[in-house]
Amino acid sequence: MEDEATRKMRFLFALRSQGITNPRVLDAMERIDRGLFLRGIFATRAHEDVPLPIACGQTISQPSVVGLMTQALDLQPRDKVLEVGTGSGYQAAILSLLCRRVYTIDRHRTLVREAEAVFRDLGLVNITAQTGDGSHGLPDQAPFDKIIVTAAAEDPPGPLLAQLKTGGIMVVPVGQSDAVQSLIKVRRLDSGYDYEELRPVRFVPLVEGLAAD
Ligand code: SAH
């Protein structure tokens, strides 16, 4: 059996080999234990660089994809960030160590509740989680310095583009849900938006409306 230190070293090595080189991002990912966001036998696989099932038929993203998206956001300590797709809460927890305030929203009430409990246990007091349809963004808290969408949309949702500050960055997987999608980095300019394709990814779809659970 591998000990904890060896597992952690392997985990960080895998992240680096996938192009996550930002020391602040690596440090945050070393500090947040992914196992706390998983249940049952899946918790024992927390250090593997694979997506894993969570409640409500959703998935926790692959750590290297979490790292890449976080790195692409170029987070600054004063940033106010919106995450669409709380899921397990793992991505939000990492964001919370790197910016001032995180708003995270999911259409599944159960996931939001479970994630909030982990945030509380970890003392991550700068995260606000809420149930809702994140494709409309969060008009009350807009504009945001950075927006991260962790479910795939066919196009970057218009309301989210509108809620991004000038100079702000949004990362969003774009494409059909049953095909390979592209991770897109959008930067809001003085006039218009600049789009950069980062890499192929595979996310669960962004679905409209609240879920029953
Ligand atoms: N970031 C998560 C992984 C998210 S999986 C983590 O770190 O674990 C994608 C999540 O997006 C799912 O939980 C799903 O319920 C949510 N989702 C899909 N469509 C949504 C929408 N319109 N609004 C809010 N959340 C949505």
Automatic annotation (TrEMBL):
<keyword id="KW-0808">Transferase</keyword>
<keyword id="KW-0963">Cytoplasm</keyword>
<keyword id="KW-0489">Methyltransferase</keyword>
<comment type="function">
    <text>Catalyzes the methyl esterification of L-isoaspartyl residues in peptides and proteins that result from spontaneous decomposition of normal L-aspartyl and L-asparaginyl residues. It plays a role in the repair and/or degradation of damaged proteins.</text>
</comment>
<dbReference type="GO" id="GO:0030091">
    <property type="term" value="P:protein repair"/>
</dbReference>
<dbReference type="InterPro" id="IPR000682">
    <property type="entry name" value="PCMT"/>
</dbReference>
<dbReference type="GO" id="GO:0004719">
    <property type="term" value="F:protein-L-isoaspartate (D-aspartate) O-methyltransferase activity"/>
</dbReference>
<dbReference type="GO" id="GO:0005737">
    <property type="term" value="C:cytoplasm"/>
</dbReference>
<dbReference type="InterPro" id="IPR029063">
    <property type="entry name" value="SAM-dependent_MTases_sf"/>
</dbReference>
<comment type="similarity">
    <text>Belongs to the methyltransferase superfamily. L-isoaspartyl/D-aspartyl protein methyltransferase family.</text>
</comment>
<dbReference type="Pfam" id="PF01135">
    <property type="entry name" value="PCMT"/>
</dbReference>
<protein>
    <recommendedName>
        <fullName>Protein-L-isoaspartate O-methyltransferase</fullName>
        <ecNumber>2.1.1.77</ecNumber>
    </recommendedName>
</protein>
<keyword id="KW-0949">S-adenosyl-L-methionine</keyword>
<feature type="active site">
    <location>
        <position position="61"/>
    </location>
</feature>
<dbReference type="GO" id="GO:0032259">
    <property type="term" value="P:methylation"/>
</dbReference>
